[in-house]
Amino acid sequence: TSSEREALLLEANLVKQYQPPMNTLLKDDKSFPYLSISTREEFPRLLIVRRPRRDGRSILFGPYTSAREARSVQHLLADTFRLRRCARLPKEACLYYHLKVCSAPCIGAIGPAEYRATLDRVGEILRGRGEPVGPTIEAEMRAAADRQEFERAALLRDALAGLGALGERQSVIGPGTGRADVLALAFSQDPATLRVAVGLLHVVDGEVRGTEPHLLEIPADDLPDPGETLRQFLAQYYGGRLELPRRIYVHGPRPAGIDSTVDELFASRGIEVQFHPTGRYASLGRLAERLARASVDQVVARPAPREVLLALQSLLELPTIPNRIEGIDISIFQGSNAVGSLVVFERGAPKKSEYRRFRIRSVEGTNDFAMVAEVVRRRFLRRVAEQEILPDLLLIDGGRGQLGSALSSLAALGLAEQIPTIGLAKREEEIYEPDRAEPRRPNPNSPPMLLLRAVRDEAHRFAVTYHRTRRRIRMREEFERADR
């Protein structure tokens, strides 16, 4: 997406569609608010709607990610341009007219033509055109603050933010009808392979409901042209599908020789295929192209696993390449059902067959340090006895305290010098090491740090999953005892 606002809108649509279990904030049935001007009223009002109709009876502006922003813009424009507020026109002027924030079309104080001209100005402002009103609103906001009219200043601040949001190009959501797919291609060539990515957007009623990046790898001695690649993708992706969108928009010019494929796949089924779309779908086409380009660049720029491990060895000054990394985490809630987890990464990839779970036995309460010490002791006590392979790096989810507890257990087993051990704190992504007074703070998005974060996050996920299982079992046992 091209802005944080577009990303939030797309995320909300996907959460409402797929209902992911871990998301609780966006799963309700509310949709984002729009500002709407009715075209059927003689003196139209500026309204807030959450489920806009696509029947052409109103002009929509938005959406807004905050209802407060939408209300602030509505109140500001209605007051400034003295727009009608009443659902039904009264027979006499209401209080808004006497407060000089309504032009009173109810008593004929303004005619339809003049009112429409005023409303056209409002529409231009909401479209981000016309004379900018931001500086005027900002000046009035500062003046209200100087007069200590803080409620008025807050209203103007929110309205200013809402008007600023309208200046952003909204390529993610807009009014429309039916289902459509928007796709674009991106190419990147290296000496061995030609990587081709297809960015695909699924649009329903003008809203992007899903994205699909498709990455294709083609041998370098059989390089197809863009037209052939597009033909193959259309045939493979749409050829066997029972349900198809009403329209397919392809970002870019129409390749030579594509007409036969389009006719064979789509014409007989009434599907319109349009190349190089204009208007709203042109911006969606550029978004699909960015999706495809990001997919290609991510694969091309992604270092090989060995390169990442070598970089990690250099970063931590390890004696050997960390081909085997083990991560440990603790999960506890309100002092009960404490559990520990251990995950294993070999050559940069998870090895789930060697994951282990631990019920905390010797620690009561919320002593996280003692729990780490217990898990480390139990993990390596048997490995020493059975002379099993030791990790090249042990990662503890936590800071200086958790690292010290792990080192104490390793020292008791005579392993403190044999197993390089670090702690990785979540908030600042700091690396704690035994022989360094200050933590390292490398780039959190560098390949070595991404690997360490993946190990830490996987250990956390595995621990939390086991902890929830233990809680469910305990609650069921308590219910069964209560029923006896």
From TrEMBL:
GO cellular component, one term: excinuclease repair complex
GO molecular function: excinuclease ABC activity
SUPFAM superfamilies documented for this protein: C-terminal UvrC-binding domain of UvrB
Keyword Transcription regulation applies: no
Domain UvrC family homology region profile: from-to ranges: 280-410
Keywords for this protein: Cytoplasm, DNA damage, DNA excision, DNA repair, Excision nuclease
Pfam families in the cross-refs: UVR, UvrC_RNaseH, UvrC_RNaseH_dom
Start and end residues of each GIY-YIG domain: 1-24
Residue ranges of domain UVR in the record: 131-166
One GO biological process term: nucleotide-excision repair
Protein name stated in the entry: Excinuclease ABC subunit C
